[in-house]
Design a protein that fits this description.
Strand content: 15-25%
Strand order of the largest sheet: 2-15-17-16
Radius of gyration: 22 Å
Oligomer: single chain
Helix content: 25-40%
Shape: globular
Structural class: alpha/beta
Number of helices: 12
Length: 436
């Protein structure tokens, strides 16, 4: 699918999509609540907007034994882990679900193969999972050098295990959610924990479902008591700061003079790492106003280059690049080592696609992206090539679309359907903001 973007001002009000990070965690927790025919013992998940990743997680919990009743954005879930015995789970292209449901599947006494399709099969998601799962008592078979499919058979018995946290926190999330089902306590030691806010999100969901985990203040150690039982919960999924980040940048760089872009359903106290977008916008000189869960961003004529460490919020890089492209001066973004194994080689993809919009991006220094602002003040981006490519990366599609609002001519984004992974309504919402 191709999407044509023409330059122009925007204004209006949009509701942020549901956080797929919270949604996948909540679906897993609801699955792990013991089966009961009493509806009072079922979980209720609210604000569960669907995207491809959430749909894949929903399919997984059904295959593992949960019953799900859907009424618009409210899901009533009857838990029942392993009431069914699937031999295979397909997690689509969801990196979180791959790393989240593998340890959960490893609690099964029968082999389960975790597989997917598309870009996930090219990402070495199994590399860091094999040794820790084996140490905790699971049999693990990986057919391809760290890539899916991966077959696990348990159950996990608990014990002490060390995990590398330098590349992703998602497998640690999976262990935190699976280990309460183990017979013994689990002592989890994490080397170089990154994306710590995502671990805090996991602990928040676990508490909501009655699970207790103690941990060191720096998230390098966790003690998960074995033999715990998940409790049913009524849980409302927050709006997604990740999905909203491009809309907020759009308000900063392309909203009509005297107006702005208002985004509802954004918790100002959220644990989501990508809430840091507010800090980046502040550093760039954007004009913002937050009232409750509503944030309005207005265009500024004096956006300036900024320094920002995105190590713990790597999903913000594309939106940050769109913001930096429209700033005067130079922007320095740290944390590029976190971008290698995303839906695309995201640092290289950002440099290539924003280069087509006349933006110079330097990746020569380790763990650093240097962006030379190409459209300061009210200037436009000088398009070098109008044929952009999402590289099947939802965040690249959204970020280039926002930058294109400041281009000097129309561009076309190939692979625009990639937004379905996290924000299926993005193109419709962007169109709503267009001034008629």
């Amino acid at each position: 699918m191709k999407e044509t973007l023409t330059p122009g001002a925007i204004a209006g009000r949009i509701t942020a999509p549901a956080s797929k990070s919270y949604a996948q965690r909540a679906l897993a927790a609801a699955l792990l609540v013991p089966h009961s025919d009493d509806p009072a013992r079922w979980s209720e998940l609210r604000n569960m907007g669907l995207c491809n990743d959430t749909s894949a997680a929903l399919d997984v919990i059904r295959r593992l034994g949960a019953e799900v009743l859907i009424d618009r954005d409210t899901y009533r879930i009857q838990g029942g882990f392993l009431r069914q015995s699937p031999t295979e789970l397909n997690i689509g292209e969801a990196g979180l679900s791959a790393r989240l449901f593998t340890p959960i599947a490893a609690q099964s006494p029968r082999p389960i193969t975790i597989t997917g399709h598309g870009s996930i099969l090219k990402r070495p998601v199994a590399t860091t999972m094999t040794a820790p799962l084996h140490a905790l008592g699971a049999t693990v078979r990986c057919t391809g050098d760290g890539y899916l499919p991966l077959t696990v058979c348990g159950p996990l018995r608990g014990g002490t295990v060390e995990v590398d946290g330098s590349l992703s926190s998602q497998f640690i999330t999976g262990l935190l959610m699976a280990s309460p089902l183990s017979a013994e306590d689990t002592h989890l030691v994490v080397r170089q924990p990154k994306s710590i806010p995502y671990l805090a999100m996991t602990l928040e969901v676990l508490r909501a479902f009655g699970i207790s985990v103690s941990h060191a203040a720096d998230y390098t150690e966790f003690i998960i008591r074995g033999g715990q039982q998940y409790q049913p919960a009524t849980y409302s999924v927050e709006g997604d700061w990740s999905g909203a980040s491009c809309l907020l940048v759009a308000g900063a760089v392309a909203s009509a003079v005297g107006s702005g872009v208002t985004v509802d359903n954004l918790n100002p106290r959220s644990l989501q790492a990508d809430r840091a977008m507010v800090d980046a916008l502040t550093r760039a000189g954007a004009t913002m106003e937050q009232t409750g869960h509503t944030l309005t961003v207005r265009r500024s004529e004096s956006l300036r280059g900024f320094d920002f460490d995105a190590t713990n919020c790597p999903d913000l890089f594309p939106a940050l690049a769109a913001l930096a492209a429209c700033c005067s001066g130079t922007t320095r973004l740290r944390g590029t080592t976190r971008l290698t194994h995303k839906e695309s080689d995201r640092a290289a993809t950002i440099a290539a696609e924003f280069g087509k919009l006349g933006v110079t991006i330097d990746l020569s220094q380790e763990d650093l992206m240097i962006i030379h602002g190409a459209a300061p003040a009210l200037d436009t981006l000088r398009v070098v090539s109008p044929a952009l490519d999402s590289h099947n990366d939802h965040r690249i599609a959204m970020a280039t679309a926002v930058a294109a609002l400041r281009a000097d001519r129309a561009v076309e984004i190939d692979g625009a359907e990639a937004v379905n992974k996290s924000y299926p309504g993005f193109w419709e919402d962007l169109q709503k903001l267009r001034l008629k």
